[in-house]
């Protein structure tokens, strides 16, 4: 049988615990310091839930210590106070069970209300706690595509697109339309709003608003393969003047994001630099969602319509062109690119001698030049 730890060792561990925990003081508690109203409400929900649970946890832990001290073996008062024939108390039973029951009811009501109020598909009804949204205001639409292993952001209202950089104007409602090229990911900007999954062949939504200028990092919260570690993007919220200047900078790029460029961009790569596309092909996101980016590929919405109508006749049994969505000849990645992640960062091993990445001035060609 192992010997119990010595008192000196226990004392050393007790006093060294705060020192060992000191590095945590440098952590960025971004979830507790949000810059968007949705994230603020989510933070408040966490704090309220924890406070309600502490109403039980703290008294229970205090009573554990009190009972251990009060009824310890060396306490002579226990011989007078302890009654071995006592077995039931209605008042004590009501106290023990009513408090947790009330807290569970409060947590259930809070969860039910918050689940509906913070539904990511629900359009926003306020900019912040003091400002309501004008129903006539149209939200800014940002189409998000999770690639292997980078992020593509398309601004259909502005006709531009970026890779690994997301910029939003402050105090403007934003609607994210989210999908993925091959495997499931999860779009997450902690200080803006909660995470939501990005899935191939599907479109999810997230509504959010940024309330103050900020710079942060977004990432995928769902493991998606070898390059997952570096699947991060820069996020910034700017005032209207700053956002207009950013849009003008992106539009100055001569690179066009069309289906051909998208197919090259969608090939697996790691550490992809920021890229700007001054022009983006209309309906590209819709083609990505429907798995029909390649020429001749039949869109899923068309196939579902055929199924809804009861089929396309016997002759359709031989019409298989454009129906292969998996390897080989998939909608995005060719067979030779399967499971092959290429380093695209300028400083990556084996990369060509290129200047260091400058996140403020890359053109769209930079993002996929290393694939050629």
Low-confidence stretches: 327-331, 335-372
Number of helices: 9
**Beta strand %:** 15-25%
User: Mean pLDDT, nearest integer?
Assistant: 77
Helix content: 25-40%
Secondary-structure element string: HHHHEEEEEEEEEEEEHEHEEEHHEH
Alpha-carbon Rg, integer: 28 Å
Order of strands side by side in the largest beta sheet? 10-7-3-4-5-15
Helix and strand content put the structural class at: alpha/beta
Largest sheet: 6 strands, mixed
Q: Judging from the principal axes of the Cα atoms, what is the shape? A: elongated
Taking the alpha carbons of the first and last residues, their distance comes to: 65 Å
**Beta-strand segment tally:** 17
Task: Describe the protein's architecture and organization.
- The protein has 372 residues and is α/β, with parallel strands linked by helices.
- The protein has 9 helices and 17 strands.
- The strands form 5 sheets. The chain has a 6-stranded mixed β-sheet with strand order 10-7-3-4-5-15.
- Helix 2 packs antiparallel against helix 4.
- The N and C termini lie far apart (65 Å).
């Amino acid at each position: 049988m192992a010997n119990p730890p010595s008192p000196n060792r226990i004392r050393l561990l007790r006093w060294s615990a705060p020192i060992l925990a000191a590095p945590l003081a440098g952590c960025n508690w971004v979830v507790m310091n949000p810059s968007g109203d949705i994230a603020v409400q989510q933070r408040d929900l966490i704090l309220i839930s924890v406070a309600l649970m502490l109403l039980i946890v703290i008294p229970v832990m205090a009573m554990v210590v009190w009972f251990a001290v009060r009824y310890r073996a060396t306490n002579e008062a226990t011989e007078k106070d302890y009654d071995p024939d006592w077995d039931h108390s209605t008042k004590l039973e009501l106290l023990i069970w009513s408090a947790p029951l009330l807290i569970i009811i409060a947590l259930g009501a809070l969860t039910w209300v918050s689940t509906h109020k913070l539904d990511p598909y629900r359009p926003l009804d306020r900019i912040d706690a003091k400002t309501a949204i004008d129903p006539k205001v149209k939200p800014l639409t940002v189409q998000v595509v999770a690639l292997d292993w980078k992020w593509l952001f398309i601004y259909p209202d502005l006709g531009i697109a970026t890779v690994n950089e997301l910029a939003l104007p402050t105090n403007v409602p934003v609607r994210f339309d989210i999908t993925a090229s091959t495997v499931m990911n999860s779009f997450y900007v902690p200080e803006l709003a909660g995470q939501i999954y990005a899935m191939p062949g599907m479109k999810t939504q997230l509504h959010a608003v940024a309330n103050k200028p900020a710079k942060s990092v977004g990432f995928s919260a769902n493991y998606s393969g070898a390059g997952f570690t570096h699947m991060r993007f820069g996020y910034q919220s700017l005032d209207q003047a700053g956002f207009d200047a950013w849009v003008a900078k992106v539009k100055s790029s001569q690179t066009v994001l069309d289906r051909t460029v998208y197919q090259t961009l969608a090939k697996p790569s790691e550490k992809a630099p920021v890229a700007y596309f001054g022009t983006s092909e209309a309906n590209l996101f819709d083609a990505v969602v429907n798995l029909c980016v390649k020429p001749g590929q039949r869109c899923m919405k068309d196939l579902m319509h055929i199924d809804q109508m009861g089929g396309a006749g016997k002759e359709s049994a031989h019409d298989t062109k454009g129906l292969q969505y998996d390897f080989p000849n998939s909608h995005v990645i060719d067979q030779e690119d399967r499971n092959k992640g290429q380093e695209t960062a300028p400083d990556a091993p084996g990369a060509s001698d290129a200047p260091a990445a400058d996140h403020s001035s890359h053109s769209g060609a930079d993002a996929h030049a290393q694939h050629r």
